[in-house]
Design goal:
alpha/beta; Dihydrodipicolinate Reductase, domain 2; 11 strands; Rossmann fold
Amino acid sequence: MDHLKGEKMQKKTTIQPAEGKLGILTVGLGAVSTTFIAGVLAAKKGFAKPFGSVTQMGTIRLGKRTDHKSPLVKDFVPLSPLDSLTFGAWDIFEDNAYEAALKAGVLEKKHLDPLQEEFSQLKPMKAAFDRNYVRKLDGQHIKSAKTKWDMAQMVIEDIQRFQSDNKVSRVNMIWCASTEAFLQPKNVHASLEEFEKAMKENNPAIAPSMIYAYAALKLGIPFSNGAPNLTVDIPALQQLASETGTPLSGKDFKTGQTLMKTILAPGFRARLLGITGWFSSNILGNRDGEVLDDPDNFKTKEESKLSVLDTILQPELQPELYGDLYHKVRINYYPPRGDNKESWDNIDIFGWMGYPMQVKVNFLCRDSILAAPIVLDLILFMDLAKRAGMKGIQEWLSFYYKSPMVAEGLYPEHNLFIQQMKLKNTLRHLMGEEPITHLGLEYYE
């Protein structure tokens, strides 16, 4: 059947109303954050449309195709309206949001100037920063504390002050800062007790992103991880999220080249076209590119980008098609290009009787333009999850991530179209609607 009919009506989840203001705290006030905030301000003033945002422009089908019922997502689920959003941020540079946006160079001055008065009022709080994790950056707008535990308490105080000063009802935190140096799970990440002990002992395995996440989760504030950092992908912070009833999600915003891979690879797999090689190269010149020029930081990003094809193609199930796939990813820092990343993919495929073919993709994208609507959607959906009583890993938001977090023992689903179905079926479930299966046999009975 196209619309799965249960014997009973699906029970609607109790969702607390989105009353009052929603505070949004971004870690980092660089290209992604300023582009996101400027776009929201522009949309509120009627200067621009929120293109790319599922929460603002997406529709969701309900019932059978013959019902012709496809409301906007924002009219179907009780999301916080754009007018309720209030912004705060941390950054290692003290530029206000308007100055930071001009330096990032993503948006033209003519689009920023109408927002200047409001935008300039957003001044970042001092950041919790450890240069061992991002050696290419050296900002001076940073906190000083004796231990990482003390640093976490300072971040908690920042959050509480932001809540009080802005009179917000709820808060959401999202990591929009740089990729940290590669870090593997260690014993100090295994439990909340060990993690807190390690913070008090200044253990080097406690990364800055973990300090922010700890502070948010401790206060019951949803946390989203937009970088491939380890951060909340550890038992200790997942334990904390469970104890405080808080949603978390991650990791690494799905933009640019990886977005293309999660669109193309499912098509090759569906048609059983073999792949012998997939070579991916990028150039970008923004702060992200500068940070990824460090091998330790690139290693973190590489792990995220390489993981995509394995779970889409599942070579263990189709060894003749994908068992010998050579997959290589390269990222090159090229300052003249700024935020306008360019990627090239050479894909060697084969079909009937083993005859070879090639696919070449040249994507000239704007990384922050693609990331901004992801930030908006994640914040609004994570706020929805919190109000719906959902906690821990929100796998239904995998649609937005390169390296989706999943429960222990599960493999992540990277296929963009399966991810989209999971997202929309979760929304249907929350609102008491039946999931869509696309079987459709009843139309022909």
